[in-house]
Write a sequence for this structure.
Protein backbone atom coordinates (compact mmCIF):
# COMPACT_ATOMS: atom_id res chain seq x y z
CA UNK A 1 0.00 0.00 0.00
CA UNK A 2 2.92 2.32 0.72
CA UNK A 3 3.83 3.25 -2.82
CA UNK A 4 0.22 3.57 -3.97
CA UNK A 5 -0.53 5.89 -1.09
CA UNK A 6 2.56 7.96 -1.79
CA UNK A 7 1.53 8.30 -5.43
CA UNK A 8 -1.98 9.35 -4.41
CA UNK A 9 -0.64 11.98 -2.00
CA UNK A 10 1.74 13.35 -4.64
CA UNK A 11 -1.09 13.49 -7.19
CA UNK A 12 -3.30 15.35 -4.72
CA UNK A 13 -0.60 17.86 -3.88
CA UNK A 14 0.30 18.41 -7.53
CA UNK A 15 -3.29 19.03 -8.64
CA UNK A 16 -3.91 21.26 -5.63
CA UNK A 17 -0.88 23.34 -6.59
CA UNK A 18 -2.24 23.61 -10.13
CA UNK A 19 -5.59 24.75 -8.72
CA UNK A 20 -3.90 27.50 -6.74
CA UNK A 21 -1.38 28.76 -9.31
CA UNK A 22 -3.26 28.27 -12.58
CA UNK A 23 -4.08 31.43 -14.48
CA UNK A 24 -7.39 30.32 -15.99
CA UNK A 25 -10.43 30.15 -13.71
CA UNK A 26 -12.00 27.10 -15.37
CA UNK A 27 -8.77 25.10 -15.39
CA UNK A 28 -8.38 25.96 -11.73
CA UNK A 29 -11.80 24.54 -10.97
CA UNK A 30 -11.05 21.36 -12.92
CA UNK A 31 -7.74 20.96 -11.08
CA UNK A 32 -9.59 21.35 -7.78
CA UNK A 33 -11.95 18.55 -8.81
CA UNK A 34 -8.95 16.35 -9.65
CA UNK A 35 -7.42 17.14 -6.26
CA UNK A 36 -10.55 16.00 -4.51
CA UNK A 37 -10.49 12.80 -6.58
CA UNK A 38 -7.02 12.21 -5.13
CA UNK A 39 -8.37 12.99 -1.67
CA UNK A 40 -11.15 10.46 -2.26
CA UNK A 41 -8.60 7.78 -3.15
CA UNK A 42 -6.57 8.52 -0.04
CA UNK A 43 -9.67 8.36 2.17
CA UNK A 44 -10.47 5.00 0.65
CA UNK A 45 -6.93 3.74 1.18
CA UNK A 46 -7.12 4.87 4.81
CA UNK A 47 -10.24 2.65 5.21
CA UNK A 48 -12.87 5.37 5.50
CA UNK A 49 -15.26 4.51 2.66
CA UNK A 50 -18.06 6.63 4.09
CA UNK A 51 -15.97 9.78 4.04
CA UNK A 52 -14.56 8.83 0.64
CA UNK A 53 -18.07 8.60 -0.75
CA UNK A 54 -19.05 11.98 0.65
CA UNK A 55 -15.85 13.56 -0.68
CA UNK A 56 -16.36 12.11 -4.15
CA UNK A 57 -19.98 13.11 -4.43
CA UNK A 58 -19.91 16.52 -2.83
CA UNK A 59 -16.47 17.87 -3.54
CA UNK A 60 -15.59 16.31 -6.87
CA UNK A 61 -19.10 16.39 -8.28
CA UNK A 62 -21.43 18.98 -6.89
CA UNK A 63 -19.10 21.78 -5.86
CA UNK A 64 -17.37 21.63 -9.24
CA UNK A 65 -20.73 22.09 -10.93
CA UNK A 66 -21.56 24.97 -8.58
CA UNK A 67 -18.22 26.64 -9.31
CA UNK A 68 -18.79 26.33 -13.05
CA UNK A 69 -22.30 27.78 -12.80
CA UNK A 70 -21.01 30.62 -10.64
CA UNK A 71 -18.27 31.40 -13.17
CA UNK A 72 -20.87 31.37 -15.89
CA UNK A 73 -23.04 33.79 -13.95
CA UNK A 74 -20.02 36.07 -13.66
CA UNK A 75 -19.59 35.95 -17.40
CA UNK A 76 -16.33 33.97 -17.39
CA UNK A 77 -16.16 31.24 -19.99
CA UNK A 78 -13.56 28.57 -20.64
CA UNK A 79 -10.21 29.80 -21.86
CA UNK B 1 -9.78 43.95 -12.26
CA UNK B 2 -8.75 40.60 -10.84
CA UNK B 3 -6.07 39.92 -13.42
CA UNK B 4 -3.08 41.30 -11.55
CA UNK B 5 -3.79 39.41 -8.35
CA UNK B 6 -1.42 36.55 -9.15
CA UNK B 7 1.39 38.93 -9.94
CA UNK B 8 1.41 40.93 -6.77
CA UNK B 9 3.36 39.29 -3.97
CA UNK B 10 2.82 41.93 -1.34
CA UNK B 11 4.16 41.71 2.18
CA UNK B 12 0.88 40.77 3.85
CA UNK B 13 0.56 37.65 1.71
CA UNK B 14 4.04 36.52 2.72
CA UNK B 15 3.29 37.12 6.38
CA UNK B 16 0.00 35.25 6.15
CA UNK B 17 1.60 32.21 4.50
CA UNK B 18 4.39 32.20 7.07
CA UNK B 19 1.83 32.20 9.88
CA UNK B 20 -0.06 29.33 8.25
CA UNK B 21 3.17 27.35 7.76
CA UNK B 22 4.26 27.89 11.35
CA UNK B 23 0.88 26.93 12.75
CA UNK B 24 0.56 23.77 10.66
CA UNK B 25 4.13 22.83 11.55
CA UNK B 26 3.28 23.21 15.22
CA UNK B 27 0.19 21.04 14.78
CA UNK B 28 2.13 18.29 13.00
CA UNK B 29 4.87 18.44 15.65
CA UNK B 30 2.32 18.08 18.45
CA UNK B 31 0.58 15.28 16.58
CA UNK B 32 3.76 13.25 16.27
CA UNK B 33 5.21 13.89 19.70
CA UNK B 34 2.25 14.12 22.06
CA UNK B 35 -0.01 11.33 20.86
CA UNK B 36 1.42 7.80 21.05
CA UNK B 37 1.07 6.09 17.71
CA UNK B 38 -1.57 3.39 17.40
CA UNK B 39 -3.24 3.77 20.79
CA UNK B 40 -6.12 6.14 21.22
CA UNK B 41 -6.96 8.01 24.35
CA UNK B 42 -10.64 8.22 23.54
CA UNK B 43 -12.82 6.14 25.82
CA UNK B 44 -16.25 6.79 24.33
CA UNK B 45 -15.28 5.52 20.87
CA UNK B 46 -14.41 2.11 22.30
CA UNK B 47 -17.89 1.89 23.74
CA UNK B 48 -19.39 2.84 20.39
CA UNK B 49 -17.39 0.11 18.63
CA UNK B 50 -18.22 -2.48 21.26
CA UNK B 51 -21.96 -1.98 21.55
CA UNK B 52 -22.83 -0.23 18.28
CA UNK B 53 -24.28 -3.20 16.44
CA UNK B 54 -26.10 -4.55 19.48
CA UNK B 55 -27.82 -1.37 20.54
CA UNK B 56 -28.81 0.00 17.13
CA UNK B 57 -28.77 -3.01 14.78
CA UNK B 58 -26.84 -1.14 12.09
CA UNK B 59 -23.77 -2.92 10.74
CA UNK B 60 -22.40 0.36 9.40
CA UNK B 61 -20.89 1.75 12.56
CA UNK B 62 -20.69 5.25 11.10
CA UNK B 63 -24.45 5.28 10.66
CA UNK B 64 -25.09 4.25 14.25
CA UNK B 65 -22.86 7.10 15.43
CA UNK B 66 -24.24 9.66 13.00
CA UNK B 67 -27.91 8.91 13.54
CA UNK B 68 -28.16 7.50 17.04
CA UNK B 69 -25.24 8.20 19.37
CA UNK B 70 -24.43 11.63 18.00
CA UNK B 71 -27.72 12.29 16.24
CA UNK B 72 -28.03 15.76 17.68
CA UNK B 73 -24.96 16.82 15.69
CA UNK B 74 -26.63 15.52 12.56
CA UNK B 75 -29.64 17.69 13.31
CA UNK B 76 -27.26 20.66 13.50
CA UNK B 77 -25.67 19.62 10.22
CA UNK B 78 -29.05 19.49 8.51
CA UNK B 79 -29.85 22.91 9.95
CA UNK B 80 -26.61 24.36 8.55
CA UNK B 81 -27.47 22.96 5.14
CA UNK B 82 -30.95 24.47 5.36
CA UNK B 83 -29.51 27.85 6.30
CA UNK B 84 -27.09 27.82 3.39
CA UNK B 85 -29.83 26.86 0.95
CA UNK B 86 -31.91 29.71 2.32
CA UNK B 87 -29.01 32.14 1.91
CA UNK B 88 -28.54 31.11 -1.71
CA UNK B 89 -32.26 31.64 -2.28
CA UNK B 90 -31.98 35.06 -0.68
CA UNK B 91 -29.10 36.30 -2.80
CA UNK B 92 -29.77 34.68 -6.16
CA UNK B 93 -33.13 35.75 -7.45
CA UNK B 94 -35.00 33.34 -9.68
CA UNK B 95 -34.63 34.53 -13.24
CA UNK B 96 -37.30 34.84 -15.86
CA UNK B 97 -34.98 34.49 -18.84
CA UNK B 98 -33.14 31.20 -19.07
CA UNK B 99 -30.01 29.95 -20.75
CA UNK B 100 -29.36 31.78 -23.97
CA UNK B 101 -27.59 29.09 -25.91
CA UNK B 102 -28.11 26.33 -28.41
CA UNK B 103 -28.90 22.86 -27.15
CA UNK B 104 -26.03 20.45 -26.91
CA UNK B 105 -26.66 17.15 -28.71
CA UNK B 106 -24.77 15.00 -26.20
CA UNK B 107 -26.57 16.66 -23.32
CA UNK B 108 -29.98 16.24 -24.91
CA UNK B 109 -29.55 12.55 -25.66
CA UNK B 110 -27.94 11.77 -22.31
CA UNK B 111 -30.60 13.56 -20.32
CA UNK B 112 -33.27 11.21 -21.64
CA UNK B 113 -32.18 8.22 -19.60
CA UNK B 114 -29.10 9.10 -17.57
CA UNK B 115 -30.93 11.04 -14.80
CA UNK B 116 -33.06 8.04 -13.92
CA UNK B 117 -30.03 5.76 -13.62
CA UNK B 118 -28.26 8.28 -11.40
CA UNK B 119 -31.37 8.71 -9.24
CA UNK B 120 -31.59 4.91 -8.94
CA UNK B 121 -28.00 4.76 -7.68
CA UNK B 122 -28.82 7.55 -5.22
CA UNK B 123 -31.83 5.67 -3.87
CA UNK B 124 -29.66 2.57 -3.50
CA UNK B 125 -27.04 4.49 -1.54
CA UNK B 126 -29.69 6.02 0.73
CA UNK B 127 -31.48 2.76 1.40
CA UNK B 128 -28.28 0.80 2.15
CA UNK B 129 -26.92 3.44 4.50
CA UNK B 130 -27.30 1.37 7.65
CA UNK B 131 -25.74 -1.76 6.13
CA UNK B 132 -22.88 -0.61 3.93
CA UNK B 133 -21.00 2.66 3.34
CA UNK B 134 -23.32 5.38 2.16
CA UNK B 135 -26.34 7.07 3.60
CA UNK B 136 -28.66 9.99 3.36
CA UNK B 137 -26.15 12.75 2.78
CA UNK B 138 -24.18 11.03 0.02
CA UNK B 139 -27.23 9.50 -1.65
CA UNK B 140 -29.13 12.77 -1.48
CA UNK B 141 -26.38 14.58 -3.32
CA UNK B 142 -26.27 11.82 -5.94
CA UNK B 143 -30.03 12.19 -6.49
CA UNK B 144 -29.71 15.96 -6.83
CA UNK B 145 -26.88 15.61 -9.35
CA UNK B 146 -29.14 13.34 -11.40
CA UNK B 147 -31.86 15.97 -11.33
CA UNK B 148 -29.29 18.59 -12.35
CA UNK B 149 -29.18 17.11 -15.85
CA UNK B 150 -32.93 17.51 -16.09
CA UNK B 151 -32.65 21.01 -14.73
CA UNK B 152 -30.18 22.22 -17.34
CA UNK B 153 -32.40 21.17 -20.21
CA UNK B 154 -35.66 22.25 -18.66
CA UNK B 155 -34.85 25.91 -18.50
CA UNK B 156 -36.55 27.27 -21.56
CA UNK B 157 -39.90 25.94 -20.43
CA UNK B 158 -39.43 27.81 -17.16
CA UNK B 159 -41.18 25.14 -15.17
CA UNK B 160 -38.44 24.02 -12.81
CA UNK B 161 -39.31 22.16 -9.65
CA UNK B 162 -40.27 25.22 -7.65
CA UNK B 163 -42.77 24.68 -4.89
CA UNK B 164 -42.54 20.89 -4.73
CA UNK B 165 -38.89 21.07 -3.69
CA UNK B 166 -39.58 23.41 -0.80
CA UNK B 167 -42.60 21.42 0.37
CA UNK B 168 -40.57 18.18 0.38
CA UNK B 169 -37.73 19.83 2.23
CA UNK B 170 -39.90 21.19 5.02
CA UNK B 171 -41.85 17.94 5.29
CA UNK B 172 -38.71 15.84 5.64
CA UNK B 173 -37.17 18.14 8.21
CA UNK B 174 -40.35 18.03 10.25
CA UNK B 175 -40.43 14.22 9.94
CA UNK B 176 -36.86 13.93 11.20
CA UNK B 177 -37.57 16.06 14.26
CA UNK B 178 -40.87 14.23 14.87
CA UNK B 179 -39.16 10.82 14.91
CA UNK B 180 -36.49 12.22 17.22
CA UNK B 181 -39.17 13.54 19.56
CA UNK B 182 -40.93 10.16 19.59
CA UNK B 183 -37.67 8.72 20.95
CA UNK B 184 -37.54 11.47 23.56
CA UNK B 185 -41.11 11.04 24.73
CA UNK B 186 -41.39 7.25 24.68
CA UNK B 187 -37.86 6.10 25.47
CA UNK B 188 -36.32 9.02 27.28
CA UNK B 189 -33.60 10.22 24.90
CA UNK B 190 -33.64 12.42 21.83
CA UNK B 191 -33.11 10.41 18.62
CA UNK B 192 -33.31 7.10 20.47
CA UNK B 193 -33.16 4.32 17.90
CA UNK B 194 -36.37 2.41 18.59
CA UNK B 195 -38.24 -0.03 16.40
CA UNK B 196 -37.56 -3.65 15.52
CA UNK B 197 -33.83 -4.30 15.15
CA UNK B 198 -34.19 -7.24 12.77
CA UNK B 199 -31.20 -9.24 11.60
CA UNK B 200 -28.12 -6.98 11.38
CA UNK B 201 -26.85 -6.75 7.83
CA UNK B 202 -30.19 -7.03 6.06
CA UNK B 203 -32.14 -4.26 4.41
CA UNK B 204 -35.00 -4.27 6.91
CA UNK B 205 -33.05 -3.87 10.10
CA UNK B 206 -31.79 -1.25 12.53
CA UNK B 207 -35.25 -0.06 13.54
CA UNK B 208 -35.88 3.58 12.77
CA UNK B 209 -32.46 4.43 11.32
CA UNK B 210 -33.29 3.69 7.64
CA UNK B 211 -36.37 5.88 7.93
CA UNK B 212 -34.31 8.72 9.36
CA UNK B 213 -31.76 8.30 6.59
CA UNK B 214 -34.51 8.34 3.97
CA UNK B 215 -35.78 11.61 5.42
CA UNK B 216 -32.28 13.06 5.34
CA UNK B 217 -31.73 11.82 1.79
CA UNK B 218 -34.85 13.47 0.39
CA UNK B 219 -34.17 16.63 2.38
CA UNK B 220 -30.59 16.94 1.14
CA UNK B 221 -31.63 16.19 -2.43
CA UNK B 222 -34.37 18.81 -2.44
CA UNK B 223 -32.13 21.40 -0.81
CA UNK B 224 -29.42 20.92 -3.40
CA UNK B 225 -31.94 20.95 -6.23
CA UNK B 226 -33.18 24.29 -4.92
CA UNK B 227 -29.63 25.65 -4.82
CA UNK B 228 -28.80 24.34 -8.30
CA UNK B 229 -32.02 25.75 -9.66
CA UNK B 230 -31.04 29.21 -8.51
CA UNK B 231 -27.54 28.80 -9.91
CA UNK B 232 -28.62 27.54 -13.32
CA UNK B 233 -31.31 30.15 -13.87
CA UNK B 234 -30.05 33.36 -15.34
CA UNK B 235 -31.29 36.03 -13.01
CA UNK B 236 -30.71 39.74 -13.00
CA UNK B 237 -26.97 39.23 -12.88
CA UNK B 238 -26.83 38.20 -16.52
CA UNK B 239 -28.53 41.34 -17.76
CA UNK B 240 -25.71 43.44 -16.40
CA UNK B 241 -22.89 41.27 -17.71
Amino acid sequence: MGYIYLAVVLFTGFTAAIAVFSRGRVSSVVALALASVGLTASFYLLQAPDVAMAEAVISAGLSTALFLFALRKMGIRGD
Amino acid sequence: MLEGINRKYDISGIIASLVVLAFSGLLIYLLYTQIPYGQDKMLVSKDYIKMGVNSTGATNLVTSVVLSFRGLDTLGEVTVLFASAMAVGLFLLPGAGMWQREENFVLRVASRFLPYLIILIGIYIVSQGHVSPGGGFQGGVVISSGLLLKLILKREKESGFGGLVHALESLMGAGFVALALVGLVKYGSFLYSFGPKGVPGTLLSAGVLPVLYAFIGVKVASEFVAILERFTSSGEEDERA
